[in-house]
Design goal:
It is a single chain. The chain has no helices and twelve strands. It is mostly beta strands. It has one domain: Sandwich (Jelly Rolls). A six-stranded mixed sheet has the order 2-1-10-7-12-5, with no helix packed on it. A four-stranded antiparallel sheet has the order 6-11-8-9, with no helix packed on it. A two-stranded antiparallel sheet has the order 3-4. A hairpin with a 5-residue loop joins strand 1 and strand 2.
């Protein structure tokens, strides 16, 4: 079975932020490839950040997917767990309450990403 991997960032009942690996199942759809189930979304937001981006602890403004387009990031949870994500990876960010997470660019380059809120 083919899957699309996503990393979820969420807050638990104590407000601490965690990572969770998710695998979205894909179904064969002929010559166009493999597709996941359709998901309703609200908005799409295009974003660029400066090369020195290093944003202190914050919660997500919306439940959203973040698609990293060209530069990787490091995300740190409220418990100090750090993970690096590269261009092309997708994050499902749901810590809209709690202690939040910190994020910073891995390279001193302007970074582009897409937010898809739901």
């Amino acid at each position: 079975m083919k899957v699309f991997n996503v990393t979820r960032i969420y807050a638990d009942e104590n407000g601490d932020t965690h990572f969770e690996a998710l695998s979205m199942p894909l179904t064969a759809s002929g010559p166009i490839g493999y597709l996941s189930e359709s998901m309703p979304v609200k908005n799409i937001i295009f974003r660029k950040v400066e090369p020195d981006y290093d944003y202190t602890f914050h919660t997500a403004p919306h439940r959203q997917f973040i698609v990293l387009l060209d530069v990787g990031i490091e995300v740190e949870t409220s418990l100090g767990d750090k993970r690096q994500f590269q261009a092309g990876e997708v994050l499902q960010v749901e810590d809209v309450t709690g202690k939040g997470h910190r994020s910073r660019n891995l390279e001193a380059k302007e970074r582009s990403s897409i937010f898809i809120t739901y």
